[in-house]
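pinging the channel bc i need a second pair of eyes. not urgent but kinda urgent?? the chain im working w is below, pasted from the shared doc
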Amino acid sequence: MSLGKICAAALCVLAIAAVRADGPAAQDAVIVDAPTEEVLRGALRWLATKQNVNGSWNASDTRRPDHPVAMTGYVLLAFMATGSLPEEGEYAKQVKAGLDFLLDGIGTDGTYRGVDGSKYMYNHGIATIALGELYGQSRSPIIREKLQRAIRLIVTTQSDRDSRKGGWRYQPRPGDADISVTVLQVVALRAAKNAGLDVPQQTIDDAVDYVRRCSVPGGGFAYQAGQAGAGFSRTAAAIYSLQVCGHYDDPLVLPGSEYLFNRIHERRFWTYGANYAAPAQYMVGGETWRRWYDLMKNELLPKVQRNGELCSWDDREVGNIYATACHTTILAMPWHCIPLYQR
C-alpha cells in the first residue's frame, strides 16, 4: 500500500475540509507523485537506521549525542507526516521508541533532561510539538500528563517585558524574545490546545502581538521586535505563527507569503525557514500552495543523496538527520497526515 493511502485510511476524517473556500480544489490537486514517494520511502528507511538504542536521534549521523531532544522531535514529525504512529504504520516501532525517549526525559518541572542550556527553548518547543501531535492522535493519559508539564513551562516562561512581551528566547525564563524561538512555543501551544489541553488564551494573544511587532515594511519580519532587517527564515516563522494561532487572514500574512516567494533562494537558515514556510503556504492554500510545493520539489529532489534504497539530505548548518526529517515532512504535506497542518 502506498504511503498516501495509509495516511488517507488513518486520517480521512481530517482531510482538508478546513481550508479556505478557494483552497480545496487546488489543495487536492497538489499530490505526492511516484518519484517523490520513492524518495520519501528512502528517507524514512534512512531515518530508521539512524535511531539510537535509547530511541533518540542526533543532529547528524555521526552518533554524537548532539541535540537528541530536538532531533527526536523533528524525526517523529517526519514519521507522523507519512502515516506512522506509536501503534500503527510501517514505522510504529520507531515512533514508539522516540516517544518513550521524550517522555522519559521530562522532569517534574516540565523541562527535558540532557538539553544544551544555551539553546534550551529550541529543543523544548519542537519536542513538545511532537508530543502534542502524538497525544492528539492517541489520547494517551501518560502523554497528556507529561505534555501538560511541558506546556505549563512554556506558559510560565513567556516574556512580560516591554517590547519583548509575548515572546520567548533561549532560556526557560521570562525575559528576552526572538521570532525563531517564539514560533516553536506558539506551535507547541496550538498543538496542545487542539488536543484539548488547557492553554490560556492570553498567552496566545500576547504571542500574536509580539509576532506582529516583528513585522517590517515590505512584507518581511525581523528577528526581534523593533529591529530592522527582514529575512526568509524569520518571515516564514512569523506568518506561520500568525496562522497557527488562527489569524489566517491577518493583513500581514499575504505580504509575508509573497516575501517568501521573492526570497526563497536566501540560503542562511534555509532548512529552518522552509520547514515553516511550507505549512504557512499550505494554510494560504489555493494556487499559492501549489506554486510553493512545486518550488520545494524542484529545490529538494535534485539534492537527494542516494545510497541504494536509502535517501537523505544534508544541511551544513545543523546536520543531515535534521535536514532529512524536515524535507520529508515538507514533501509529505499533501497527504494531510498531521492535524496541526490543517487550517
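so The mean pLDDT is 91. and Residues 3-341 form a domain with the Glycosyltransferase fold (CATH 1.50.10.20). — does that match what u expected or am i reading it wrong
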